[in-house]
Amino acid sequence: MKRPTSGSIVIVDWRRGGIPTEPNKLRPAVVIEDSALFDDMHASCIVVPLTTDQGLAIPALSVAIDPSAENGCRTRSYALAFNVTTVSLTRVKPTSHRVTMSQVETIRHRIGICMGLV
């Protein structure tokens, strides 16, 4: 599989071997790693999950993604920056959709807030 690039929306399969605090389903996510950071042989990528459940989105730590042809969202979604994780590429299915680089930068900034870097 070709490595997904930053801003790509992928489908992550968390059904295999998940623990109770992790999603146990297929879930869209945004790839937020720096595309130059890892070579093609690296076995994982860094993502944040997307949800349509506004109740799960902590406003200061999430990014609203409004529907567009480019991102393929049907309703407003939220990138949960506080749930940033590394996932094996064997769990990742690419899509043709993506968020804007401005949205990626905002997600990264919110991750920095979560980690006390901002």
Short characterization:
By secondary structure, the chain is mostly beta strands. The chain has one helix at residues 101-114, and strands spanning 8-13, 26-31, 44-51, 62-65, 77-80, 85-88, 92-98.
Shape: globular
CATH architecture: Roll
Per CATH, what is the topology?
SH3 type barrels
Number of helices: 1
Mean pLDDT: 90
Determine the N-to-C terminus distance: 35 Å
Total number of domains = 1
User: What is the helix content?
Assistant: 10-25%
How would you characterize the overall build of this protein?
This protein has one domain: Roll (SH3 type barrels). It contains 1 helix and 7 strands, in the order E-E-E-E-E-E-E-H. The chain has one helix at 101-114, and strands spanning 8-13, 26-31, 44-51, 62-65, 77-80, 85-88, 92-98. Strands 1, 2, 3, 4, 5, 6 and 7 form a 7-stranded antiparallel sheet that branches. It starts with 7 loop residues before the first strand and ends with a helix.
